[in-house]
Amino acid sequence: MIMKVPYNYLPMQFENYESIFSQWRELIGTAEFTLGPYVEKFEREFAEFIGCKHVIGTNNGTDALILALKACGVGPGDEVISVPTTFYASIGAIVAVGAKPVFVDIDNRFQMDIGQIESAITPKTKALLPVHWGGASPRMPELIEIAAKYNLSVIEDACMAPGGRVQDKHAGTHGNVSAWSMHPLKPLNVMGDGGMVSTDDDELASWMRIYRNHGMVDRDHNRIWGVNMRLQPLQAIVASNVLKTVSDSVSKRHKISSIYDDGLNALPDFVYVPKRLKDYRETFSLYMIKCESRDELLKNLVSNGIDAKVHYPVPLHLQAAAKPLGYKRGDFQVAEDYAKKIITLPAHQYLESDQVHYVLDKIKAFYLN
Ligand SMILES: *Cc1c(COP(=O)(O)O)cnc(C)c1O
C-alpha cells in the first residue's frame, strides 16, 4: 500500500488562520501599511529570540543579503568568499552589489570547508559569506578567527537558521551582519515573502535601517540614496505568530531526523549521513543525505508516494550563470560529489512517525532487496 509523505506542510501549518485574520483586521483598521508598530514589534521579538541587538525587517532574504553586503562596504572590485553548495541567492546577492564571488569547497557536513578559506584569500577579499546550509552551520568560531586575522567582514546567510545554535549562541549571531529569509519553506516563514538582517553593530544597524527605506531620516530629509526593501506589516503579523512556534517545530524536526539518522546509519554501504556536531543545533530545514544510485532512489521514493527532493543537482560553479567566473568541473570535488548524491527527505513537523518509518522501509527495500 502506498502512503503519501508530502514535502509541503503549508496547508497544515496555516490551517487555523482565523487568529491571523483577526490581527490583520486590526491592522487594516489602523491603515499602517508601511513599516510601523507591527514591523517594529516583530523586529524586537526576533532580536530577543536570537539574542542580538538589532533586527531590521526586509521584503525577502535576497534583499537582506544585498543590504548586509552593502552595509559592510562590499562593492565593485571586491571579492567575497562563499560556497558552490547553496541557493542561488547567496551568490546572486554578491554579484548584485558588483563584487566577485570566490568559491571554496564544502566539507563532509555539506558546509563551507573552513580549512580552505585562507588559500582563497587575496588582497581583494573583503568579506566571507558562510551559509547555514540546510539549517546546519559551518564551523563559525574557527571562521570568525580567520576573518579577524585578515580583517574581513562576515556576512552570514542564515536564511535556514532560525531555531539553530552554534555552541552557546543562536546560529547567525557570530558574524558582523546576518541575513534571514521568511520564504514559506524556511523554519520561520510567512504567507509570501519576508526577511530581515541582524547585527550587534549600532552603526551598521542605523545605516541598514535608513537604506531599507529610501535613505530617509524622515519624510523631508534624505541622508543617502537608498531603496525600498521594507517588510510588509501584514507579513510581520504572520511572522510574530509563527515565531512562537519555531522552537517547537525545530524540536519535532529533531525527533524525526534522529529516527532517520538511526535507520540510515545502518546502511553505510549505500547512504552517507553527515556528522552531527555535539554543541551545534541544526534546524533540519533540509534533511539531507548522500546516497548511491540517487536518481534511481529518487524515482523509487516518488513512485511510492514520498515527496523527496534534490537541493540541488548542479553545483553553482558549474551553472551557466557562473561562466564568467571561469571555474571548471573538478574544481570543487566535494561539492560535485554532493550534487550527484544528495537527496532531501521530507522531515517537517507535521509528519507522523509511521510516515517516517515508511520512508526508511522504502529506502531499505530499495538497497537491500
Ligand atoms: C531562501 C534562501 C535565500 C533567499 O531568500 P528569499 O527570501 O527567497 O529571497 C538565500 N539563501 C538561502 C541559503 C536560502 O535558503
Q: Provide the list of bound ligands, each named once.
A: pyridoxal-5'-phosphate
Radius of gyration, rounded? Answer: 21 Å
CATH class of the largest domain: Alpha Beta
Strand content: 5-15%
Measured distance between first and last alpha carbons: 17 Å
Outline the biggest β-sheet: 7 strands, mixed
The helix/strand order is HHHEHEHEHEHEEEEEHEEHHEEEHHEH
Structural classification: alpha/beta
| Second-tier CATH architecture of the largest domain | 3-Layer(aba) Sandwich
Percent helix, as a range, is 25-40%
Query: Please, what is the average pLDDT?
Result: 97
Strands side by side in the biggest sheet = 1-9-8-5-4-2-3
In total, the number of domains comes to 2
The CATH superfamily of the largest domain is identified as Type I PLP-dependent aspartate aminotransferase-like (Major domain)
CATH topology of the largest domain: Aspartate Aminotransferase, domain 2
Stretches with pLDDT under 50, minimum 5 residues: none
Number of strands: 15
- The gross shape turns out to be globular
- Number of helix segments? 13
Describe this entry's structure for a reader.
Strand 2, helix 5 (88-96) and strand 3 form a beta-alpha-beta unit. The chain is 38% helix and 15% strand. Helix 4 (61-71) packs across helix 5 and helix 10 packs parallel to helix 13 (353-368). It folds into 2 domains: 10-243, 3-Layer(aba) Sandwich (Aspartate Aminotransferase, domain 2); 246-368, Aspartate Aminotransferase, domain 1. The chain has 13 helices and 15 strands. With 369 residues, it is of the alpha/beta class. The structure holds pyridoxal-5'-phosphate. Pyridoxal-5'-phosphate binds at residues 60-62, 86-87, 89-90, 131, 157, 159-160, 181, 183, 193, 195.
